[in-house]
């Protein structure tokens, strides 16, 4: 019989991580769904350990059953055009995703 680990017994804390490996609760603004895919939006603060400091941005992750992966990043000025990751560039869902991102930035979900 195959052994599986439940989220409560995950010894390495791999569950609920963002695509960048950070905890999924850090900066979480909310999530939305389209079909089997769940999208999560995070506010990432500026990196104060670098010179010059990196700007704040938003990270959109997608979880479709294979673990979270980055869809896009958008700088803190939500009117900027996102930097789409890989195959997401020019995807038919992009305009819909951008509307969802801007709605969550304007009104984050309460947890």
Characterization of this structure:
- By secondary structure, the protein is α+β, with helices and mostly antiparallel strands.
- It has one helix at 94-106, and strands spanning 28-34, 37-44, 57-63, 68-75, 83-84.
- A 5-stranded antiparallel sheet has the order 1-2-3-4-5, with helices on one face.
- The longest helix has 13 residues, at 94-106.
- It starts with 27 loop residues before the first strand and ends in a 5-residue tail after the last helix.
- The relative contact order is 0.16.
- Mean pLDDT is 82; it is low at 1-14.
List the helices and strands and how they pair.
Layout lengths: L27 E7 L2 E8 L12 E7 L4 E8 L7 E2 L9 H13 L5
Antiparallel strand pairs: 1-2, 2-3, 3-4, 4-5
In short:
This protein has one helix at 94-106; strands spanning 28-34, 37-44, 57-63, 68-75, 83-84.
Q: What class do helices, strands and sheet pairing give?
A: alpha+beta
Sheet with the most strands: spatial strand order: 1-2-3-4-5
- N-to-C terminal Cα separation, in Å? 37 Å
Largest sheet: 5 strands, antiparallel
Keywords for this entry:
111 residues; alpha+beta; 5-stranded antiparallel beta sheet; 1 helix; 5 strands; 12% helix; globular; disordered N terminus
